[in-house]
Amino acid sequence: MTSRREFLKWCAAAIPGAACFGTQAAEQIAPARIDRYIDPLPIPRKHKPVERHNNQDVYRVGMIETLHRFHSQLAPARVWTYEGQYPGPTFEVLRGSPIVVHWENRLPERHLFGIDTTIHGAMPPAPEVRTVPHLHGAQTRSESDGLPEKWFTPGGTAEYHYPNQQQAAMLWYHDHALGITRLNVYAGLSGLYLLRDETERNLQLPAGDYEIPLLIQDRSFDAHGQLAYVPTFDDRSSPPPGHWAPEFFGDQPVVNGALYPYLEVEPRPYRLRILNHANSRFFNLYLNLSPRPTDIPQLVPLEQIGTDGGFLPKTSALNKLLLGPAERADVLVDFSNLIGKTITLSNDAPAPYPGWEFAVAEPPRLYELMQFRVTRPLTAPAPVFSFSGSSEFRKLTPDSSTITRDFVLTERMDAKGHSLGVRINSKGYDDPVTEKVKLGSVECWRFINMTMDAHPMHLHLVQFQILHRQGFDTGAFTLGRLQLAGNPRPPAPNETGWKDTAVVKPGEILSILVRFDGFAGRYVYHCHMLEHEDNDMMRPYEVIA
Ligand code: C2O
Ligand code: CU
Ligand code: CU
């Protein structure tokens, strides 16, 4: 890992007279012209506890600015990391074994990116650099949730407790500071959190070198290989530098911190733990044996075994896997009969998702992300496992719900048709809490989407279940009438498990059933497109004991 010292050295060695980040290293080529599939896929290292205290593992995590090479032909880019690593080190913890994490903000006083000080939470006198880590998908006390307003500045620390009482799942940690989450996460503040349990171990799923985490992002780079954050409006125009716009679509795919990496695999089953880690972009993923994205695709089937919050009640065979930002999939893929083959992890989701009916300039699609090459010899016969679904899963039924709450999603536009922000029930984050739910109760929440975008809606504290999705008449709704259209559609087979993030498409109502278990206190729910979350598609809610 590059230290700050090495970074300064690198700057000093750069072409004299040029500003540090305006220099062109000799080996450097334009980001758009780099060679694909020449760098191996990095696997984030596992995080180690620094001590054991009161029978709990204690971890220390520093937020640090460093240099990171996204590609061997690009100059190192300035990034913000947990523990000097992009993405941060992976926690691996056991259900029933709570841990303590000391989070330390050791970042500089200036942000990597321009801050829009006109949006809520980022207005003066808010300091430029503020961070607060959140463990996404976890059931934690409110004090350890990483609420957006609980940010701290360089030199500041927080001690958070993670009880790890929930079932095995891949959670993830990322920054959540009010009004600048999109920038802090874009800068690199995120990592994975693998929660293990007995049930999982007994399944004998592919593990160790055969369990591969894939954090998928889209990023843009300037001519010097530095991260560029340029958001866009629906007409693809961008605001003046440093100003908010409703979406960010990068033109380069980054997997585990690498551009177009490859992974050499053995002819055997692998378990992939996939996270859509983009700010705004949806991914519709598939494994393609055809050499070029323009060829007729030859798909390698996937079997999804788990969702955001645990194993599916019934595993689901898939050709393509749609993930909105923050959604995760636990997937098996069998390379046994593919010796010598190269398989490209590909994507055909439009951006923005699901796309417009009228033609506007579309941002670049990212058709390919990485390669799997079945070039390694089988080191040992793969242990036999069979898994058809979790027997632990309990379905929530609508009759257990005590109340149905409606959340209307709307976007405000200026005269040019440029977004001024997205809201839930026309309220902003600072408006008083309107949802006070009883601890232990089940509620039905309906997200009614009046916008042109699909939104991945996320609740803190809980894992929920999708009840159904249903069309409605948006015209009638503007006149105050909720007129349902068509029949409610049950969740897709690969969405029938525990979710903490679920997508609602335009002109659609997403109904979810939520049991508010665990802890009383203040939490939040929001759209996980980070540009939306920051302005101002996020609301607090309270769980009352
Ligand atoms: Cu990924 Cu509010 O969270
Ligand atoms: Cu979260
Ligand atoms: Cu949104």
Protein architecture, described:
The relative contact order is 0.13. It is globular and about 60 Å long. A hairpin with a 5-residue loop joins strand 11 and strand 12. By secondary structure, the protein is mainly beta. It has helices at 4-13, 181-187, 198-202, 474-478, 530-534; strands at residues 39-40, 51-53, 56-68, 77-82, 88-94, 99-105, 133-136, 157-162, 169-175, 190-196, 211-221, 227-228, 252-255, 258-259, 261-264, 269-276, 283-288, 299-300, 302-307, 310-318, 321-323, 328-334, 342-347, 368-373, 401-413, 419-424, 436-438, 442-449, 455-459, 464-472, 484-489, 501-504, 508-515, 521-527, 538-544. It contains five helices and 35 strands. The chain folds into three domains: 4-199, Cupredoxins -  blue copper proteins (Immunoglobulin-like), CATH 2.60.40; 208-373, Immunoglobulin-like (Sandwich); 398-544, Cupredoxins -  blue copper proteins (Immunoglobulin-like). Residues 134, 136, 458, 460 line the site of one copper (II) ion.
